[in-house]
Amino acid sequence: MGWQKTLARAVEAEGVGIHSGAQVKVRLRPAPVGTGVVFVRTDLGVAVPARAEHARDFSFATTIGVRGANVGTVEHLMSALYALGITNVFVDLSGPEVPVMDGSALPFVQMIQRAGVLEQNRSLPEVRLLRSVRVSHGDRFVELHPAEHFSVDYRVRYRSPVVGEQRLTLTVTPERFTSAIAPARTFGFLSDVKHLRDRGLGRGGSLNNCVIVDEYRVLSGRLRFRDEFVRHKILDLIGDLALLEYPLRAHVVAHKAGHALHVAVVRELLSQPEAWELYEPERVAPLSVHPFALEPVAHAVAG
Ligand SMILES: [Zn+2]
User: Fold this and answer.
1) Domain holding 199: CATH number?
2) Cα 201 to averaged position of ligand 1 atoms, centre (Å)
3) Domain count along the chain
4) Per-residue model confidence as pLDDT tens digits over 48-90
């Protein structure tokens, strides 16, 4: 990390939205310094910056929106962009939801690799914690602790013996994300499918883009990892933390959390300005940076 980055050229893909069932084209294209990640609903002509304040809905996915224009299921793409350090990018979408692809973040990692990464010769401050921040709901929680690197310790527990209790701790680097986290697919329980459909969700879900588990077995073939479930939770967490807009130097501990708590901890952090600082490592504080040039970025965090 250290420098703002964008893509070297535009890349496209197409697929179905897991909840809307809509067929959607997604196009990632380079963006100038200070842009952040901005989704563009090309069908509506509305831009939706990927920021915590724009998070709208957390039922089974994270939806962001402005002025009635929503973008659903942003977290897998956001996770890939954040973990690979892509700071500035426009994401054109022809419909209401990011395509689910194979249910993991690997297709998005491959899109980024296909596009190539361009360093933008402008430093990127990081959020460094000065004290811990915690949000909880019953026995579920997410904690952010001061640390030198970005690391995650995630624990899940499900009644289904197929999943049971899983825990994974890792320091997040682009390489480790690509090999250990990005391939982990989204999952759901057969018992939830009817409930989802009743709510108008999961219309694009299938055994090709979701690991479906019934009480005692996995219905969608072999798992990619024995603990694919907790790995996918880490994938989701990283995608939701990306709404912070800056690299996060923190040790994140999550227990039985989900999208709502992932986003809540970002909002809690932003609401406690005394709990963190924007930190620029010395090696990336070039004198050539004009103070006003950084203003839109700094404003983005404060706002
Ligand atoms: Zn997910």
Assistant:
1) 3.30.1700.10
2) 14
3) 2
4) 999 999 999 998 899 999 988 999 999 999 999 999 999 999 9
Task: Tell me the pLDDT of the chain averaged across its residues.
Answer: 91
Q: Is the pLDDT of residue 146 over 60?
A: yes
* The domain boundary residue, chosen from 67, 92, 125: 125
Tell me whether residue 298 is in a domain.
no
Active site residue 290: no
State the distance from the centre of ligand 1 to the C-alpha of 272, rounded, in angstroms.
28
Q: Ligand 1 center to residue 187 CA distance, Å?
A: 8
Using alpha carbons, list the distances in angstroms from residue 189 to 101, 105, 163: 19, 20, 10
| CA of 104 relative to ligand 1 center, distance in Å | 7
The answer to whether 246 and 36 are in contact (CB under 8 A) is: no
- Whether residues 62 and 200 share a domain: the answer is no
Cβ–Cβ < 8 Å for 116, 238:
no
Residues 191 and 138 in one domain: yes
First to last CA, the chain: 23
Catalytic residue among 259, 262, 290, 299: 259
What's this model's pTM, rounded to 2 decimal places?
0.91
**CA 76–ligand 1 middle distance (angstroms):** 6
Q: Which residue range forms the structural domain that includes residue 117?
A: 3-125
Asked if 94 contacts 11 with a C-beta cutoff of 8 angstroms, the reply is no
Co-location of 151 and 106 in the same domain: no
294 pLDDT band (50/70/90 cuts)? very low
Q: 1, exposed or middle or buried, with CB in 10 Å at 0-12, 13-18, 19+?
A: middle
